[in-house]
Amino acid sequence: MDIQTAKQRAAEGVAAARDELIEVSLEIHANPELAMEEERASALIAGKLEARGFAVERAAFGLPTAFHARWGEGPVTIAYLCEYDALPEIGHACGHNLIATAGLGGAYGLKAAVSPDDVTLLVLGTPAEEDQGGKAIMLERGAFDGVDAALMAHPAPFDIAAPPMYGVEQANVVYKGQAVHASVAPEAGVNALDALVTAYQAIAQLRQHIRRDSRIHGIITYGGSAANVVPDRAEARFLVRALQTAYLADLKGRVQRCFEAGALGSGAQVTVQWDKYTYAPMNNSMPIADAYGENARTLGRKFLEQAVESTGSTDMGNVSWAVPSIHPTFSIGAFAINHTPGFTEVAATDAAHKSMIEVAQALAMTGVDLLHSPDLLRRAKDRFGAPA
After folding, report:
1. 3-state DSSP call for residue 329?
2. What pLDDT, in 10s, does the model give residues 297-354?
3. How far apart are CA 2 and CA 34, in angstroms?
4. Other residues' Cβ atoms within 10 Å of the Cβ of residue 43
5. What residue spans of 284-349 are helical by DSSP H?
6. What's the pLDDT at 385?
7. Torsion angle of alpha carbons 246, 248, 250, 254, nearest 10°?
8. pTM score
9. Torsion sign over Cα 38, 41, 42, 44
10. 282-314 burial by CB neighbour count: b if 16+ within 10 A, else e?
11. Gap between the Cα atoms of 270 and 274, Å rounded
12. Residue ranges per domain, the chain?
């Protein structure tokens, strides 16, 4: 079978599953589940894959809501990734219902276009992207061993074939002081909230002197329980982001010193717990991203050509330094910003599902490219720095 015929079959395979994919998307959207709690979504997708002949391992890699689905025994291993966790209070405001079904549809399409002797086709259910870094955990536990290429796509305001994504470090900060009556004996107290506010202001001043390709933001999660009691405990959560790993490490150190300065100036004690799993900056495989872009354009997708200065972070970044990977973004038919209630609403519309189907087709067609064009896979590995 020539490559164009295979691509046509891949696109038709996705189109034939359109109703099922939309049904799955709406089911996930209507039942949002937080990180590591995605029991319903994980079981739903795993069941669909089993019904289509995939061998599925549930609770894979020691994670209750992860899964590993496999079809075929070919020499090239292509993995499609599904995310399905939601955000607190605002549900699927990052459109993970669409990520899940774009990955699922991409796998359906590729399966329809190739022989099981040509490919080892994986679908990986990757929980907890919004918090805890499910892919980073799965990577550490061997989920991506032997994978030649990893593909997924993410809804956003615009279509971008190879979007930059920040690396991110998260800190949970606790200050401890001495509680006293704020009016009767303030001189005997140590104000944990003052220590935290000092650090907060130091970080605010630091922002003026960091590079444009970096971000720092945080919230105070606890600051005391009564106005007439000097707070003996204060807590915060901060995120530090940068597009380059070395600068991220440098910025992390500078923020750490701000936390320590708050304690030093107030006499409080501080504990800073940085998350074990750093989200790495995205290392886009440009040969695969270019192939995806060409396929998506044939389906009518229009890409933003100008450079993007503001972006988010993803644990797909960790995968992208171990396996040639893509993480394109796609518009869902109305301008809405991720992590807002408006995006939650748009992520369940007909327009969003039309985009999801087209993107699933482009992902499937890109899988065909990887199988039919050995030079593409070689260039992806050469550019990536892995052995060809």
Report:
1. strand
2. 999 999 987 666 668 899 999 999 999 999 999 999 888 899 999 999 999 999 999 9
3. 43
4. 14
5. 286-298, 316-320, 341-346
6. 59
7. 180
8. 0.91
9. positive
10. bbbbbbbbbbbbebbeeeebebeeeeeeebbbb
11. 13
12. 3-165+279-383, 167-274
Contact 198, 176 (CB under 8 A): no
Number of residues that this document lists for the chain: 388
Residue 96 identity? H
- Residue 77 has which token pair? 């291993």
Among 328, 345, 350, which residue's Cα sits nearest to residue 154? 328
Count CB neighbours of 19 within 10 A: 8
For 26-68, the pLDDT digits (tens) are 999 999 999 999 999 999 999 999 999 999 999 999 999 999 9
CATH architecture assigned to 167-274: 2-Layer Sandwich (3.30)
Residue that is written with structure tokens 């939309």 in the block? 22
Q: What angle do CA 13, 17, 22 make, to 5 degrees?
A: 140
DSSP code at position 335: -
**Nearest by Cα to 54 from 138, 135, 126, 116:** 116
Q: Looking at the domain 3-165+279-383, which fold is it?
A: Aminopeptidase (3.40.630)
